[in-house]
Design brief:
This protein has 90 residues and is of the alpha+beta class. It contains three helices and four strands. The radius of gyration is 11 Å and the shape is globular.
Length: 90
């Protein structure tokens, strides 16, 4: 299963608007997406579920692992990595 690990730089972490942007982007792809908070050991959680992602408590500076499986796994990971690297396009 392809994956990447990245540090959340956004001041809100993976919460509120960044969380919404992540779920919206993840939902565009035919792939099962899982997210784990490497820093606090929570997860994996469904990357298309706002509530499940919120429970990861991923804050600014936390490292998260994003993995995907399915027809568009590679495309989904590339888009999500870009979204996080670009501060959730805010």
């Amino acid at each position: 299963m392809p994956e990447f690990t990245i540090t959340i730089q956004h001041e809100a972490g993976l919460h509120a608007r960044p969380l919404s942007a992540f779920v919206k982007k993840a939902s565009q792809f035919e792939a099962d997406i899982e997210v784990s908070n490497v820093t606090n050991g929570k997860g994996p959680s469904n990357g298309k579920s706002p509530l499940k992602l919120l429970l990861l408590a991923a804050q600014q500076g936390h490292e998260v692992k994003v993995s995907a499986e399915g027809q568009q796994a590679e495309e989904a990971l590339a888009a999500l990595k870009s979204l996080i690297e670009n501060d959730f396009e805010e």
